[in-house]
Amino acid sequence: MTIEQQLIDLTQQLLESIAGGDWETYARLCDPSLSAFEPESAGQLVEGLLFHKYFFDLGRDGTPHNTTMCSPHVRMLGSDSAVVSYVRLSQTLDSNGAPVIRRYEETRVWQQQEGEWKHVHFHRSVST
């Protein structure tokens, strides 16, 4: 397996942990100093895992979720760091049971630390 494919697989695992509310997997894949720009942070850079844990602690609503990573692109920044960019399609149901699809443009930065890839930064935008 190539490093690029390994990073795509880790990113998919990260996305599935988010969709499934699996905090243990999410925390294992992320560096404790994770930084992010995302819609929920209202334009502010957030650092650390506490901000993200809040959403995991809310729990899942029990509706089915599906996450599709479209056209992933991996750019190696050296032997120990990389950027993975893609569009994420998130399928859920609204309160009436009708399918809802949301689209996010995401860039995730991975760094190899002590032989393991860790998610260290991301930027997520929402398309309307």
TrEMBL record:
Gene3D superfamilies: 3.10.450.50. InterPro entries: Ca/CaM-dep_prot_kinase-assoc (IPR013543), NTF2-like_dom_sf (IPR032710). Keywords: Kinase, Transferase. It comes from the Bacteria. GO terms for molecular function: calcium/calmodulin-dependent protein kinase activity; calmodulin binding. This is Calcium/calmodulin dependent protein kinase II association-domain-containing protein. Pfam families: CaMKII_AD. Signal peptide: none annotated. Residues 4-126 form the Calcium/calmodulin-dependent protein kinase II association-domain domain. It comes from Entotheonella factor.
